[in-house]
Amino acid sequence: MEEYNFSQEKPELVENDSKSGLSLTFFSMALFVLAFTLAFGDELSFILFILVVLLVHELGHFLTMKLFKYERVRMLFIPLMGAFVQGSKKVYSQKQSFIVTAAGPFPGVLVGTVLMYYGVKLHSVWMMELSGLFLMLNIINLLPLDPLDGGQLFKLFLRKSHAFFLLIFAFISSILMIGLGWMMDSTVVIVFGFLMGVRVRAMQRRYQVHQELKSLGVEYVRSYASLSYLDFIAIKTSLMERTSSLRKYIEQASEPESSSVIASQVNNVLEVPIQHDASIIFKLMILLFWIASFAAPIFLFFYLDPSSQDLQWYFDAI
User: Fold this and answer.
1) How far apart are CA 28 and CA 120, in angstroms?
2) Which 3 state secondary structure label does DSSP give 26?
3) Are strands 82-88 and 71-78 parallel, antiparallel or unpaired?
4) N or C of the chain: less Cβ packing under 10 Å?
5) pTM to 2 decimals?
């Protein structure tokens, strides 16, 4: 049996260097463009439009994270898939989290709607095509599926974490995403659905660890810095028992390497505390904007009347 000296300190958590974030963003963007060029080499305007839509969307997340003093904020592009922004805080604000999540899709839908309106008025084909991408990608992103922004908004409306419910929610989301990809005949969406399924398995292991920690009286809703060495050992032991690959790695790796990995794995188990500071009125406003994001392009489409001359020129052009 492994013996522990409870007077010693837990290993230091090594955080990602935010200084390399910008170069990593440009590198991932270059790979993204290269992958789309190889897949759609003769559709340069489409590649440019996709990049613009994703940049506008992710900049919304990025700028609001910076505004609310998130740490280690960086934007990454995934070839043939999309992009995301990541950052962290010691304690999350529910109100700020609503704003950060909504700042991607809500402006995207607004830009798409405005582009469609002026595209019709100015008879601009490129504006219509760009507006279609803005609307399609951002509205799909607002569907209440995990891990889309709509799924994140849905979870933020919950007063408590409801871990088991969220696990089931994530599982159903992955199934629905696979079904959506099948209906759209989109291999990318299907693969994304399967990747979501892999994430569900990771969530299940995390849920099981949390249940065990609850039975041991270990508080896991806290930061790594505030974690006592005794609780660190309890979480480490639970992880080692449940993850054979981690146990084998620790047995073979050097002390500095194993300590760094263990610290990272233990930190992943912890849940960052969240302040439930969003009022009912604020939540209702977010809900109204959410509904309006789905309704706006539909209203505009019927307002323009596809059977009239407003859109006939576009159908003739394409």
Assistant:
1) 35
2) helix
3) antiparallel
4) N
5) 0.81
3-state SS assignment for residue 76:
strand
pLDDT of residue 1: 44
Separation between Cα atoms, residue 119 and residue 113, nearest integer Å: 10
CB atoms within 10 A of CB 46: 14
β-pairing verdict for 92-93 and 274-275? parallel
What's the rounded Cα separation, in Å, for the pair 111 and 89? 29
Asked if residues 288 and 96 have their Cβ atoms less than 8 Å apart, the reply is no
- Quick one: pLDDT at residue 54? 94
Q: What is the pLDDT of residues 71-85, one digit of tens each?
A: 889 999 988 788 899
Would you state the torsion angle of the CA atoms of residues 226, 229, 233, 239, taken in this order, to the nearest 10 degrees?
20
Candidates 83, 23, 28; CA nearest to 52 is: 83
Enter the tokens of residue 57. Answer: 């969307």
Q: Which residues, listed in sequence order, are joined to residue 76 by a DSSP beta bridge?
A: 84
